[in-house]
From TrEMBL:
Organism this protein belongs to: Bifiguratus adelaidae
Span of domain Acyl-CoA oxidase/dehydrogenase middle: 127-220
A GO BP annotation: branched-chain amino acid catabolic process
GO molecular function: acyl-CoA dehydrogenase activity; flavin adenine dinucleotide binding
Cofactor(s) required for function per UniProt: FAD
Keyword Oxidoreductase: yes
Domain of life the protein comes from: Eukaryota
Pfam family, one: Acyl-CoA_dh_M
Protein name in UniProt: Isobutyryl-CoA dehydrogenase, mitochondrial
Catalytic activity: propanoyl-CoA + oxidized [electron-transfer flavoprotein] + H(+) = acryloyl-CoA + reduced [electron-transfer flavoprotein]; (2S)-2-methylbutanoyl-CoA + oxidized [electron-transfer flavoprotein] + H(+) = (2E)-2-methylbut-2-enoyl-CoA + reduced [electron-transfer flavoprotein]
Segments forming domain Acyl-CoA dehydrogenase/oxidase N-terminal: 12-121
Entry coiled-coil feature ranges: none
Amino acid sequence: MGRELTVLSILEDEQEYQSMARSFADKEMAPHMKSWDEQEILPVDVLKKGAELGFGGLYCKEDYGGSALGRLETSIIFEALSTGCVSTTAYISIHNMCAWMIDSFGSESQKSRYLPQLIQMDKLGSYCLTEPGSGSDAASLSTTARKSGGKYILNGSKAFISGGGQSNVYLIMARTGGQGPKGISCFIVDNDMPGISFGKKEHKLGWNSQPTRAVILEDCEVPEENLLGSEGQGFSIAMKGLNGGRTNIASCSLGAAQAAIEAALEHTKVRKQFGQSIASFQNTQFKLADMATSLQASRLLVRQAARLLDAGSPAASVYCAMAKLKATDDCYQICDQALQMHGGYGYLKDYKIQQYYRDSRVHRILEGTNEVMKMIISRDLLVE
Ligand code: FAD
Ligand code: 2MC
């Protein structure tokens, strides 16, 4: 299958984006994904090459060099890139979310200072919402930002920050007002501002091509012109960023599942047991059919969420939650099934299937756990 089936779901002009991204994934990413994982390398040179094709600011406006694509095209691109390395693509997706937040809510001066380098990926961005004491309950965060003279003084710590220690620009959600979401503001913090430091590099099951660290703020001095949007707008900015983030992460899961099915097809056609190929057993064939159908159903829901984001629909955030829930759960199951079809070989690090399985596992946890996605969907259903 594989590619033919993917192509069926999109229009002709969108195929161009898909084949450009797939060709980049095949040439620049797939041959290295194993070593990036084993050696825990964030391939900054490859990110910069990707930025030349527009991957650094896919849905930023053209004013400062963005690609000005829709979320639908972005989803197609992240899916295709993920077939070459899920973890690296997911990092690119977080970077894109940060660039979009500055593009959408920044002043002209913030945009002109940060966007050109972010979009070129000469500088990398990280998104900092989670704290040790506030994960799913993000609005309870306790990092503070106190105004003093022409500066804000930030104190607190952020947990699990993707790109932490390696990124240059951190979008930090901190409390400038009272309890709850309305007391939160968003700051653009450079890695060399006084008072920012980073924790140890976390050891992870997957997503190893990108570092994850705590970001520690001790009387961190941030110029007041680095407040993004207005005081109290930070939670809303963070959530709007995450709507796109969730379709992006869901798209990365689509890519993992697509690659897993391709690997399963390759393996089961060649591997023989009981005198015939594994692919000739009806159990294998039916499983493959279920996997392809499940991938396609996830894909349609992700593309629908992306379309609603593009249309500015009020239903978009719920669809983004549905797409993230469905695609990250189902695509992880597809990776698991594909690993099973490899038998013992699937469990060996010599075979790439285990990396898709490991890398896609965390998509059910981050950018809002899938239980939080169910909370968002059910709240909408039950609203009076
Ligand atoms: P908790 O909130 O403690 O949840 C634990 C369990 O309880 C989960 O299963 C959860 O679904 C469940 N639960 C919680 N509340 C409810 C409820 N009301 N109803 C039902 N079940 C509930 N964060 C960032 O800000 N920036 C990043 O770049 C970033 N990168 C990450 C990278 C990695 C590799 C990982 C693992 C995490 C990253 N995160 C990042 C953090 C991630 O968003 C959080 O881990 C996630 O939101 C869950 O928070 P938590 O880990 O505190 O779990
Ligand atoms: N889009 C737009 N606005 C949103 C929104 C969304 N998806 N979610 C919430 N809001 C708004 C909401 O409309 C409300 O605004 P207003 O008061 O003007 O009506 C405000 O935000 C507060 O929302 P709630 O009243 O729903 O707040 P509550 O605290 O009950 O729940 C919840 C919010 C659980 C949905 C939010 O805390 C959440 O999404 N938690 C998960 C945290 C998360 O996703 N973390 C990811 C970190 S990043 C990461 O993992 C990476 C790898 C980068």
